[in-house]
Batch of 2 targets.
Target 1
Amino acid sequence: MTRIDGGLTDRGTTLGFRFNGRAYAGHPGDTLASALLANGVQLMGRGFKYHRPRGAISAGSEEPNALVTLRSGARAEPNTRATVAELFDGLEARSQNHAGPLERDLLAVNDLLSPFFAAGFYYKTFMWPKAFWEKLYEPAIRKAAGLGALSGLPDPDAYDRGYRHCDLLVIGGGAAGLAAALAAGRAGAEVILADEDFRLGGRLLAEGGRIGGRPAADWAAEAAAELAAMPNVRLMTRTTVFGAYDHGIFGAVERVADHLAAPGGKVRQTLWRITAKRSILAAGATERHIPFRDNDRPGIMLSGAIRAYLNRWGVTGQRQAADPVAIFANGDDGHRTAAQLAARGVPVLGVIDPRADAPNLGGYETFAGAMVTGTKGRLGLTAIEVMRNGRAEWLSCGLLGVSGGWNPNVHLASHHRGRPVWDEDHLAFLPGEGGPAGLIPAGAAAGQGGTAEALADGLRAAGQALGDLGIAPAPVELPAAEAEPARQEAFWHVPGKGRAWVDFQNDVTVKDIALAHRENMRPVEHLKRWTTLGMATDQGKTANVTALAVMAELTGKAIPETGTTIFRPPYTGVSLSVLGGGDTGKAFRPTRLTPTHAWAEAQGAAFVEVGPWMRAQYFPRPGETHWRESVDREAQAVRAAVGLCDVTTLGKIDVQGADAGEFLNRVYANMMGTLPVGKVRYGLMLREDGHAYDDGTCARLGEAHYVVTTTTANAGTVFRNMEFARQCLWPELDVQLISTTDAWAQIAVAGPKSRELLSRIADGFDLSNEAFPFMACAALTVCGGLRARLFRISFSGELAYEIAVPARYGQALMERLMALGADLGATPYGTEALGVLRIEKGHAAGAELNGQTTAAMLGLGRMVSQKKDAIGAVMSRREGVAQDTRRLVGLAPADPARKVVPGSHLFAPGAPEDTAHDQGWITSACFSPHAGHMIGLGFLENGASRLGETVIAANPLEGERVELRVVSAHFVDPEGGRLRD
Amino acid sequence: MTDLTPITALGGTAPRVLGAARLTLSERPELALASLALGRGAEPPAPEGLALPGPGGLSVQGALAAFWTGPDQWMVEGADLAETDFAARLQQAAPGAAVTEQTDGWACFEIAGEAAQIEALAERLVNLPRDAYAPGRASRTALHHMGVFLLRRSPDRLAVWGMRSAAGSLWHALSDTMARMEALHDS
């Protein structure tokens, strides 16, 4: 046990938790790492490649080593950093990436084979035989070298998303962030202060310093309380701002319930999109280590992390309290750790400092001009080798803190390719120009890492933001803080034999970088990909700059000449579940239901997704064992009696205005302005490139009032294109558009008995052929006064109507029609029968209007009016389009027992079945109950003049070929007498 | 009167209501809706004395309320008029304007509760600054990939108009978010 007095945990409460099955205790306020260290547990995991024992080296989100799997079962979450996992009662954690117990990992044999696992090893070694890579090498390597494994079970938790807007987003709640938020909050700005930690204060909680004469952590708590009381300030703790995006938008994840054993009814995490007019990056800094031989043992930690464990958690970090602690530092910062430990009675071996003039802050020995050149300890540090004046000496040591300077957390400032700039005074990259607009770096993130400097810099940044926002600042008194000694000298790694780790997470050593240099992988981008340095969950937070420095030394160049590290989002790992925003399964996207959906469900309909719509596909009846039985019956009912189909999904666009006719003339290829009131006309729309893109009917309800119908699929596209034409192409036209697709329930009433059925609901309306002929439309009332619209149009080729009523009455109307039509054989039909009926009639649908077909190919070439211009008309006449001889034809199998398969390509009999001899393809096919065999529609070269010929439909993928007869596309009533009767 | 029985957007014969501890969500099928668009160059009318508001505005006059939906375009609500030919009434009050029946093109859900609760719910639903759904404001936005109108009728009431065919998805989004919010308070 290495827990001492002090710290910010609640010692009065004990939390039980398990690590690798063993029970331990901690306190509220602990992280998993602090609680393990308090229990003398330094060994927390195994290295990526060599499976060497590893412990936590940090106390924050930069942690590369102490990755654990939290929880179990479906909630198991791999690669969680023990250093930020908030302790809760009952927490269960397991170490990762080992075979057998953590203490005796069988895969540690890799460490003995390390000469074979240098950088680039895989690329060079597993080249042959090529086929082995995917099936053997890669799976084996992934199994041996890696991070944690997913449970493979569905995530049981809920996630959600939200949106927040503010004047100022302060990223990071340390000294600079708190000062900035106070200044902006008191000035009345709408402020969001976000911090990844569960407690505000940042390094103020870790440093043990004083502000305004009292402990800095107390000042932070008071500042947080003041901010919490401001209505214009929102504090978001446990929230990582992970990315800066365009226009002041930031992505953030709030871990709502990660610190609870189970979320209960709560969401696990929330994805926030924060839109901020200005932002302050007060994300602090990450301490660097100094690579030396065997610097990766548990018990070797960043010096600042030791201070954090000491001051925030009251934990000293050795396995046993009596184990001496040493510090290896190139600057004064490391000496502060030693002085604080000594002052707390912790045995301090001393500070090993390569500087000849290394200071002593009291209470420990200074090893000036010295370096650490080796370590011992199989599962945890037991001794260090100190080299001084050319003499090496092994000293017993249970914890070594390493301090190589601090790297400002410039990540978000470089998310818009803002390039950090090397600053020789700070020996660090500072945020440069060109980062996200409106983002102001402050505090340690801007190189102002001392407490007093950070507070002042936070105020400065807030002042700048308020100035930009035009908000008058309110007075904020800057509290006094002690100055910390911060002198340092460049010292990047300890030269010598053996392996010195630079990137702990990816097991990249100084030697690997030297190898990359020898292999000419010198640009940082190549270095990264060759060695994997800076990859994986920590993205090289503790490694990148050190690696650059080592490479600079090898190339003899300065660090900024060697390269710059920039960063992409996310700052830390973000779960896919939360990125999904919470909606999964059926709620993944909106679903649209027709007005008769519930009724169709009650009829036992099978449904099909049509874009966002759910449409009834067919209505099986008892005894029908195959969908085709139902579909054949439904289609036959339409041909023989009357069928009912909900066609509400077809787009309806209300077009009004004095120039509505002219407008429609320009959007339809055919003439529409001449349509008489009370009539409907079939219309074809072309894309600007001259190809057909949508068809439908247009009804003229009044002098200046039309209703355009579109296909279901293109309802949105047509409306958007018409709106574009109205607003941008011809703003001079007096036209008003609005969608009314959902407003009206529309039911197709089709079949020879449709007139009889409709006459039973129409209120005194003359449905006779004379009064209401084919292609007529009218407003009327039905069922005792309900306003309705009736259109005499037919998709099936039969006498048919579509009747529209306000959507809320759609279901009742369907039920009424079914009831009143029982004696007529009224039959509901779905989209399958609809398809059969239209193929039998030779009507084009989506499969024919596939974006590659012209009006002429559809047999509608004469619809493209020569008397007027319309969108696509000119382009439809261009060379290469106008000459296309493929025409829509009907296709029937020579042997009626054979299948007609859509997608098959058409060839002349005897011709080679290859691309060069391709004569077209089958677009649609079905079994036709009318014909008694399968039929198809397709485009065939010179199709119009080939009726009666035989073609071959080939499906080379399946090795099928069928002989087909070319016939009229109108299998039913080619003269069109039925629909006009 | 027709003897057909209408159903609500959610498929019931009575409006659905979901009461939770802090917020109530209810279906409002009795509200009529019609769009009103001006002819080119026409002056905005004041149907039945209703002033047609500018962008973001929401105006109320007697049984009518209007909100702006685009240049020279508005939606006009009619309280308790859904079973009437509301578009015809509005057309009469605004001759020359293009009026289109929209009552069943949309479905209205209303959220009632304390202002702070409504705002906390809204920020989980729509990407808008709070001003956009301040009391007396109307806005058009996307909610869970669906186009909606938000009307903040008063501090304690927020109406959401969404497309009728997607009413089930909209109700799910609203009620689910409400339930998650309630759970946050239950800690």
Note: Residues 17-186 of chain B form a domain with the Gyrase A; domain 2 fold (CATH 3.30.1360.120).
Target 2
Amino acid sequence: MLDKNGIAKRIAKEIKDGYYVNLGIGIPTLVANYIPSGINIVLQSENGLLGMGPFPYDGEEDADLINAGKQTITTVPGSSIFDSAMSFGMIRSQKIDLTILGAMEVSENGDIANWKIPGKMVKGMGGAMDLVASAKNIIVAMQHINKAGESKLLPSCTLPLTGVRCIKKVVTELAVLDILPGGGFKLIERAPGVSVDFIRASTLGKLFSENSVPEMNLD
Amino acid sequence: MINKVVSNVKVAIQDIKDGDTLMLGGFGLCGIPENCIAALVEKGVMKLTCISNNAGVDDFGIGLMLQKRQVKKMISSYVGENAEFERQLLSGELEVDLIPQGTLATRCMAAGYGMPAIFTPAGVGTEVAEGKEVRNFNGKDYLMEYAFNADFAIVKAWKGDTAGNLIYRSTSRNFNPVMAMAGKVTIAEVEILVEVGELDPDHIHTPGVYVHRIFQGSNYEKRIEQKTLSVKS
């Protein structure tokens, strides 16, 4: 079973040279720590920056330079700054190659819920609805099961939706799964030490699997 | 050149009245019009509708206006980090319209470009789509969203000249340029106000035609919400 860094590490392997990538808050932010060497990518922050760099050193932080999580950051050489309309313009027109974001639930037909829990204070969707509605390639980083052991990969989402039929790949603490065009989760890889049977038992949505499924390579 | 300079923040906001709709630039606490917010709190105008990506924190930004219960309605994409906001929302004192961030930006942009509406895929199939017209273009569904109609847009820029031309600094640009274009009256506060001719026309982000009033602000706090650092190894 993977921890958060393990999930981030596995997702990082999906990133290809030359990609423009938007990383959501939480586990997706950790992906930046595991970009394979020799690969050049550009990180987008939807508040208006391409070419996000690491956090600043103490004393070098700049109140005018933050990421979408409102954290102080830096720029890398070749970065660019733009307004919020252009930022979502490049997302909507699919100039951003890959979006990685978290989810509370994903359904077998690729619906995602990640912004609202009825009865709890609603903070808002931020840019999540724009991202999932437009991105051509979305990877969800999420927990496969909740603390009570209940599946979060479902036949249909129970929480209010963020987007419909938009998710194609999910990476959890247990597995890598693709969502098939006709519906259903296809088991692609197992986390080290996790059995196909355990993944099957942890997936409430329709699951397709070969008898033998490779273990993730996290090196 | 037409001179847009007003003497101070009080003059800049003097005709904002109860019940007006305001756009306020900024993302989190980054690039917010600190001087105008302070003056609006002092003036005590009430029943405002505020269009702003966020609602500040308890003791800064729009949070200061919430404390004085000056806001009737917030139109935002994300409103976390604010306990007073939550209290007013749950007690029914405050109306909130949560909309996707790109939709918020583009509804501002549409107003500034003179377009009545836009079509966006954000929110299709979700509760955001309820009651909205859906159109299919090239096999994909889009929601029709209207351009905003704001009485005042209040923005913060880094540099400006007396003709109202604006230059923003770093990611404090965010919503400021699109809101500057979208107000019936646009008020700009700047850190540095210069004479015409001192800014390179090629470097202007917001042309002065969109700006009705400009003044040099003071005492910028520029509070950081999430100071996050790398550790030197």
Note: DSSP finds five helices and 13 strands in chain A.
